[in-house]
């Protein structure tokens, strides 16, 4: 096994969308057992999202033995990491945020080339990533003993009751999959990693092949934090791979005790199938995407239609339409306000600049999916176009066609939405009952008369993880009350969230201590 | 479909272990769509646990159409039951407890014949069953709004934060499987049903074929409560079946949104396999049994050995050794105290009266499993014997043999335990690390010097759901801090408990309401 430190490798010169302000030293290796190492170097390249050309960074493809080593090391590290106090874990998370800030210019320069996301967006995302780490650190500091339920001994009762204390233990090593659309906030240092480390679990991250260099550079920053905090080195591991084999090996590994994933329905469910083959069942937290329906009520005021249209177009096409919470399905009545909304939206969509998507693969998939959809349904509006860039697209079909055509329910990752008109609230209510599970949905246009729509809202609540009044579903607040997850098929486990404080609960389980001396 | 009310059927006369004080009117049918009905009557008999002879009650075998109707009705009932307030649900649970108390003499008389459990035990179990219902009722009354996390709007912040409220919704219809060993507390009106109803879910119970008449009579009491509380009738359904097919159809039904089971590893995992075949993943809560190791430390005082031996024998053989928390594995050192403990235990086991088990099937299984074990390991003690009754058995093998023989890890349901000697704390610690997941484990004989055993206790905590000092694992307190569940293979979902207040959380999931008017 090669165990050369990556610093022995000459730093690559950056090129492409961003100009690096300093050498962007990418290892191209995995970080396993506390070392940068690789058996099979130079297997695949990072790709420039704008030019579709290879970037000068080459990555090793993780081999089965390496993956096995990573999982075993994560288990060994867990045996000592689980003994760390909540305050020690909080200090690690704070140091990680600190190291990310120190490495910010490197990280953003690399991520710009790999993802074509703007500097502003990436700066915001890095801030969010740091804030997520700090949120969990703060939670640990506020409640270092965790959630404890105590039933004191009742020695006089017949039969006597022993002292019983319910506490929580971390599950063990967690497999985390970096997501393509948040190269920072849902990747190596993202919410899944932060919540698992906060819970006391160790983590093996599978890097995303759409931003391998960003993963590499972020990992370097986190390794610095791990070393500074004198944590077990294998508290966090990173493996690079383009083949799906290694992902399946990861979730099937006996040392792995939970899995967190954000991505496509197809890939997420394939991983879930692998988990189903395990001898030992483990929690499978896969956020699988969603259409996030936008219900516009017939009472929408004419005066609100233009603004709502602009919001919908902006939310659909922002970040290239590559957000899990993109409003991908608009349900409109046949009213004058809805006509105005639609006319405004069509004009706005036609003016939308062509969008560079996160990766050539995502671009090609968008082209193929929208081409197929254009054959199935009506195209209402096409945005501006350019080579290797995605044009915004607004499609339309009838409610009945949508209900009868499973492929129309597939999320198209990119700047497009589907408009469906309904004739009555009765028809809308019947539709909601058949809605597959969604991450989020919004009701627009109500006139401060919510009780009238009680039945509709109730039904909608049972189909979603987050129900919104009169706001766009994009822009997910990171806080204790957030829920980012939803009924299947929007996620594989409706009981969990991948954003917000409760995300940590995914990686904990209860333990009862009976007849132990009182802890205080 | 037959929809005759069961009262049209002549009441059967009771016989066997108990003498009924009033006619024990058993329908022999399923309770589906708010009616006692059956397509295929008289398919199997209840069996007298003492004589192995059929009891005069015959039961219908549930047919595929009936099961489908039950699940559809449970869904329809859910649409209205989920609208009930917490206080209305609490009133239902209280009324159910009340009806069970009214029907107590019937229920106990029937259960005695079917299970051979003593009147005292069944009275205690009925009280526990009522208390479980009342515990959830009380919890709903204490906190009718449920668990709510509120993040108030921050309109001045840039970007402004909307008001966000995290609440919980019930999952939908739940499949509950009656367990053989608690014909009341883990059956039709048991903890799974109580916690699911408390959560706002409707329930389809698969009766246990070892106590079908008890299920039938209990259901009649619950139906009375449902009617008095004017709840949707299909809030609870009961199906009778001897074939496993109907169980698999139940957990695969698209209307079913969670499954709760207590029983054998083999049956529980077969049901989990069926759940894995579903298009929509659902929570699978299967409590699969356990050996519940009893670690006796070398520092056990000679003066404590006799009493501990008697406790271990009583706990192993009480209730015929048919408790999930039976201390089935005793780990003893080579000390004088341990020798005394073992000698005392052997003598006590030899005096244990023969035990009537819950059902001829369980008796036959006990005979077969212990016969097989007697060929594998040493038999230390055999209790008194009688026809059709189980003799208590104490087996012994080496640590290495246990580690090398997977079949020795199988729980034997009945009054037997396996004794294993260890030579050093190092050997014990190495063993604990390899221990498969357990519901509970106890450490005996420590001398108020817990910190010395910190590493051992920590490792043990990670292998169990409940860790106990110096007490028997049997006698599971029903309270907020209880944990009855554990790492695989003791349960299929380490995150859940089937006893105690937290059992309700199994059937709830989070919902975030964004930008809704503040509820207060």
Describe the protein in words.
The structure is a homodimer of 520-residue chains. Chain A is an alpha/beta fold and 520 residues long. Chain A is 37% helix and 18% strand. Chain A has helices at 64-81, 86-102, 104-115, 119-142, 191-199, 212-228, 245-252, 265-276, 302-317, 336-351, 360-376, 399-404, 425-434, 454-461; strands at 30-32, 35-37, 44-47, 54-59, 149-151, 164-170, 174-177, 203-206, 236-239, 258-262, 284-287, 294-296, 329-332, 378-382, 393-398, 416-421, 438-444, 464-469, 508-514. In chain A, the strands form 5 sheets. A 7-stranded mixed β-sheet of chain A has the order 14-15-16-13-12-17-18, with helices on both faces. In chain A, helix 2 packs across helix 6. The longest helix of chain A is centred in the first third of the chain and has 24 residues, at 119-142. The termini of chain A are far apart. Residues 1-23 of chain A have low confidence and may be disordered.
Structure characteristics:
homodimer; 520 residues; alpha/beta; 5-stranded parallel sheet; 14 helices; 19 strands; disordered N terminus
């Amino acid at each position: 096994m090669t165990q050369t430190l990556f610093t022995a490798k000459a730093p690559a010169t950056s090129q492409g969308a961003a100009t690096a302000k300093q050498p962007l030293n990418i290892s191209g290796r995995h970080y396993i057992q506390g070392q940068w190492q690789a058996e099979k170097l130079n297997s695949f390249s990072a790709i420039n999202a704008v030019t579709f050309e290879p970037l000068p960074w080459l990555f090793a493809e993780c081999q089965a033995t390496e993956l096995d080593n990573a999982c075993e090391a994560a288990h060994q590290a867990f045996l000592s990491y689980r003994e760390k106090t909540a305050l020690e874990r909080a200090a690690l998370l704070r140091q990680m945020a600190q190291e990310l800030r120190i490495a910010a210019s490197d990280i953003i320069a690399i991520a710009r080339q790999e993802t074509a996301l703007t500097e502003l967006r990436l700066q915001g995302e890095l801030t969010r990533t740091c804030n997520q780490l700090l949120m969990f650190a703060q939670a640990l500091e506020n409640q270092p003993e965790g959630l404890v339920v105590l039933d004191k001994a009742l020695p006089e009762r017949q039969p006597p009751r022993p002292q019983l204390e319910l506490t929580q233990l971390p599950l063990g090593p967690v497999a985390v999959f970096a997501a393509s659309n948040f190269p920072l906030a849902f990747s190596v240092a993202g919410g899944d990693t932060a919540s698992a480390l906060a819970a006391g679990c160790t983590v093996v991250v599978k890097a995303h092949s759409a931003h391998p260099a960003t993963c590499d550079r972020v990992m370097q920053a986190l390794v610095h934090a791990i070393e500074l905090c004198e944590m077990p080195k294998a508290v966090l591991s990173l493996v690079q791979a383009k083949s799906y084999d290694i992902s399946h090996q990861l979730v099937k590994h006996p040392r792995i005790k939970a899995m967190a994933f954000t991505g496509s329905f197809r890939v997420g469910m394939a991983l879930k199938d692998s988990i189903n083959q395990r001898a030992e069942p483990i929690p499978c937290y896969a956020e699988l995407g969603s259409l996030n329906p936008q219900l516009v009520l017939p009472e929408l005021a004419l005066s609100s239609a233009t603004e709502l249209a602009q919001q919908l177009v902006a939310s659909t096409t922002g970040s290239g339409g590559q957000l899990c919470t993109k409003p991908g399905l608009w349900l409109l009545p046949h009213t004058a306000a809805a006509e105005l909304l639609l006319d405004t939206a069509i004009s706005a969509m036609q003016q939308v600049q062509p969008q560079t998507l996160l990766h050539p693969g995502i671009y090609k998939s968008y082209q193929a999916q929208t081409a197929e959809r254009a054959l199935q349904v009506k195209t209402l509006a096409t945005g501006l176009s350019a080579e290797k860039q995605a044009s915004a697209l607004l499609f339309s079909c009838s409610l009945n066609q949508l209900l009868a055509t499973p492929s129309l329910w597939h999320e198209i990752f990119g700047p497009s939405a589907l408009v469906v008109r309904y004739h009555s609230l009765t028809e809308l209510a019947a539709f909601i009952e058949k809605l597959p599970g969604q991450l989020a949905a919004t009701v627009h246009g109500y006139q401060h008369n919510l009780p009238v729509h009680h039945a509709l809202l109730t039904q909608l609540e049972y189909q979603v993880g987050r129900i919104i009044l009169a706001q766009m579903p994009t822009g997910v607040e990171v806080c204790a009350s957030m829920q980012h997850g939803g009924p299947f098929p929007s996620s594989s486990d409706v009981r969990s969230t991948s954003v917000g404080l409760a995300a940590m609960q995914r990686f904990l389980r209860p333990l009862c201590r009976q007849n132990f001396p009182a802890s205080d």
